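Still learning. Show one?

>
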Amino acid sequence: MNEIYSPDAFLMKIFEMPYYVIGVKTLVNSLRLGVFEELKEPKTSDELAKVKNWNKKNTEIFLQTLRALKYVEKEKEKYKNTSDTNKYLVKSSEDYAGSVLASFGTDLGGVFQEDISSLLEINLDNKSYKFQNDEKVEDRVAYTEDDQIDFSKMENTFRTIQSGYNLKQMKWLLSRVFKINKGKTLLDLGCGAGMYSLAFSKEHSDIELTLYDLSSMGDIIGRSIELTEMKERAKLITGDFTKDDIGSGYDVIFSSSSIYAAKHCLDDFMGKIYQALNPNGIFVCIADGIDKDYSEPWDMVVSWFIYRMKDMYLEVTKDMVKDSAIKAGFVSLEKMSVISSGGHLDVDILQKIVKE
């Protein structure tokens, strides 16, 4: 898989920086919980869970994350410290370098809690986890219209995310797709603030644009349409795209980091996308692409770490989108890897081939 539209080394550091803090918190917890002392000798996750009296499932997730961060390695089913970890992160080593981290930790805020020991308890039944907005996330896989989230407080954030380098990258991708398709109609599905497709369409006067997201995002998208002076050319539809009608007759459907909402019904959703496209239409899907053994890429593995421990499985693993799309009748034209402020992401370009 080729890395395309890659930023320079400085920009790479900027994009990866949000995940560094989560990685540091993972390391802090590992030091405080004595994980590396236990992994001087190889152990399976079940063996470590037994020694530490931890929950087996979340111990495995914890070790997968440490592996993605390159602190431990795995041979067959057993995890063990890397040589550098043994030298610098085991307390008995004369080169131990973890004392400051273990003592002071760091402060990220958000959903990542400083102490994850409660998530490693054997008995997790009847636990009710909450994010800062007090939304319960037990066994959740997607946000829907039933979720009462005040997106208005994040309006500027949504728009800022879809600007600068990210915007330039997405416009480049859409230009590439429309050179293949030669179409005129574009659906931005789960569009967020809508700036990607609005900016692209403004530069291509022949594009007919439809923006789609939850009704709670409607006002934000409406203001984006006004800001880009696209009121006469952009159509807005709101609803839950996993349940409601998304329209039809599209030449290109574009989904940037919105496929998570359909993970629980992915095959049906792909069929819906297929039917909404014109013959030879293209579906462009941008999502995580995490290795199935959760070893890479480290930023994506770390970003979903705590969510997974809380049974909120929103992450997308490698080829999940492509495999489901092929079952629906799509042909995979191209798969590429990109990096942005959203981390390392996979791009699937899929086409509805209709033989005459």
Q: What stands out?
A: The domain at 9-120 is CATH 1.10.10.10 (Arc Repressor Mutant, subunit A).
